[in-house]
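Escalation from tier 1.

The customer reports that the assembly of three entities below gives different structure tokens on two consecutive runs. Tier 1 could not reproduce it. I'm attaching the input and our single run for tier 2 to review.
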Amino acid sequence: MAYTGVMPSARSRAMVREARHLLFTVAPGAVWIVIFLVLPGAYLMGVAFMTNGPYGLPQMPLSLESFERLAGFGFLGWSPGNLYTLLRSLWQTAVSTGLVVLVAYPIAYYITTCREKWRPIMLLLVVVPSWTNQVIRTFGWMNLLAPGTPLSGLAESLGLIAPNMGLYPSSFAVTLGLVYNFLPFMVLPLYAAFEKLDTAQVEAAQDLFASPVRAFWHAVFPQTLPGLLAGIVLVAIPAFGMYVIPELLGGGKGMMLGNLVATQFAGGANWPLGAAGAILMLIATFIGLFAMRRIGKRLGGGEEVVI
Amino acid sequence: MRKRTLHRGLTAFWWATLAFLYLPLAVVVLFSFNAANSAASFTGVSLRWYHQLMGNEEILSAFANSLVLAISSSVIALGIGCLIGYGMYRHRHRKLGWLIVLIYLPIVLPDIVFGISEMAFFVQIHRLTGLLQPGLGTMIIAHVTFQIPFVALIVYSRFVGLDPTLFEAAKDLYASPVKRVVHFMLPTIKPALISAFFLSFTLSVDDFVISFFTAGPESATLPIYIWGAIKKGVSPEINAIATLMIGAVAIAAIMSLLFSRRRPA
Amino acid sequence: MTNNKKILALTLGGLLLAGSAQAQENKLYLFNWTEYMDPEIIEAFEARYDVEVVQNYFNSLPEMFAKLNAGGVSQYDIIVPSNYYVPRLIQTGLVQKLDKSKLENLDNVMEQFQDPAFDPGAEYTAPYQWGTTGIVYNTETFPEAPKSWSLMFDPEVNPDHPFALMGDGQVSMGGACAYLGHGYDCTDMNAWKEAARLLIETKGRETFSGFTDGTPALQQLARGVTHVGLSYNGDYLFFKEEDPDSFATLDFMIPDEGAEMWVDSMLIPSEAPNPDMAHKFIDFILEAEIGAQLSNYNYYASPNAAATPYLDEVLTKPPVQPSEADMERLRFTPSLEGEALQTFQQLWSEVQSR
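Tier 1 run:
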């Protein structure tokens, strides 16, 4: 769009036209998101600073009561209940993200070693289960892990679980459900990283280092790091706020932050407390995004690291 | 030698992972044909749960709701998202950081936070004005909100991939902006529009959490119905609906495979 | 380009209208427990008044209460909560008074339900069904089960079989209170704290399966996911009838330490779209024959005196009609409000999150 040599008045008119063009194309969507997401979000944050009414609805005056409650301070004194929930969420997120990495890394590598014409099909095979509804996938695991099923029988005979108990409902089932749910989100970015792998570098490293482990560590791993980090963001953030899987697979034991927040609204308990929990989740999300961006930039991965 | 054992190990691992990925779905499909109401034993093949499904008005209406919701929200999101995608492209030299943040917001927000903020907000607005009563309307609004970014990004990247001189050529060719849109823009970005529509559609059908919090008495979608049925504990019927939904996904997967193969990428 | 904006505005307006134009004159929105209504009664009502009944279901009272708060108050015409949620519905202004002039069959209600403690003068409520919440257990696993809460709370009585407590905090807490000897309807702070401690301990046991609502608890029992659970007498009989094989080894009992007796009532939300039709529906349910049909279908005891002659025989004996000895031990779940409710909810969320 070169406007050189145009009269100043015509130029400013063109600028106005451009600005109007920008407004008309961008405004509907931007306004939509502002009205239907930013405002609700702001309202929710406001709710977090209100007082819990006698029946769970927010009311005036403003206070920090809900944050105190979230931190465990009730008028019965301090209790570690919510802290446990928070720690459990962090722990579940860490464990399942770790497991997802352990499974996805070799899988992504393996796909790149296969013939080119098979690769899209293999990727599709990994992704297709995640096209089915989350509720259905989780229900599948409920079927598989219930007491009396072969898998539970096996675990029982190996002495992994108490007799008659079954693998579901349990924290183990929640972890398994999380790994299952998020595996594709890790495989895809890792695959992209492996596909771009500079093989010359790898071969040089193989010559340089006697042990393949060291060759891998120095030549392969750093190159896949951006993909790995992208995968971790894609897995860890939604896992931290997960609601469906712990609710269905965890029984009453595996309560996570997502459930704590959801029950405040869906169980008629305490809106301000739920809103405070949501803020905590948001903070975690943004810290995660920010950290990944920083690390990504330092590694030279640049923008692509974040989604 | 070592490389071969590594490869063999990886192959085994690959098949094990596939088994892990498909086992739960396979069990759902298998038990949808189970004659007995049991998750533990398969007593014989029967279509009893499918018979129960048919004529279940609630399921049919949930199915209809899912479709109406997915189609109407995708159409609206396609319109709005397209505009933004084009605007972002056309004005990509400006500082549009705030817009990028705005567009990424629905993507990065945890869906539970998304869902409850919309619910709390809609309830408040409804209390004050009588508008936005929970129902299909509020669900469509919520779905459009999370679909817009995906449409915008797909359309944007399609425009970026185009040769910029094409736009100049089009400008010479068609004087009126309307004709330019109809004869040049829309045809060029058609593939992006199609894939954006399908992505929006899939996202909408797949969504549970956001729908759950914005739904009203008559607007239960299939995932909400299934959730309710699981919570209620009537299991075998769920297997049957789930099998039908898995079947739809399988067809979609095969279609996308054929589609991507026919076009030399 | 301004056209775009117009289209957008139109679409938006359309959406808003679609949202608010939902409630129509010829529909009745019923918000009820799952598996709690005979479809034939609905058909009969639809035929008589030329109206479409839209049913929605809840699995627990907290869920019902949350839905009402989230806009349901202007979307449902009838709700069917249990006794101890009625006071908080009245106090939060979520329900409206009944217009008794429109309820001809009100006299059919049994005397003991005409002036209930949870709604003095029955200004807001008309009774729907009444029943009990007891322990359902597997008789093969526990051939000599004690008639006691110890089946849940004593690890020596039930060392190695999975069991579930109820998702509704007040019922689980009441059970723990009863087991500890404070009575099912305890409201004393110290008793509650002790009960909460017991629940946390119980939750920590390896064999604790989870918190389950009443109706799904039966399905879990039938499928062997749990061997002991909490459920309702009528639902137990209903599903036993549906699936005799799975329920052959399941039994229902009321623990000697005391348990819950409840009354579910019909109420009209304060902003119900169609209160006129709602009154007609309540009056319809209060008819002698319809009331009996409802109980015969649900296997719950009827609060309708006029319905008695039409009731099936099974409804006149335990577990539907508890034995006199059991009747003495049954208590209503206390209605909590104000500080007591806040205290209770903190204790309960403590139990849930540990």
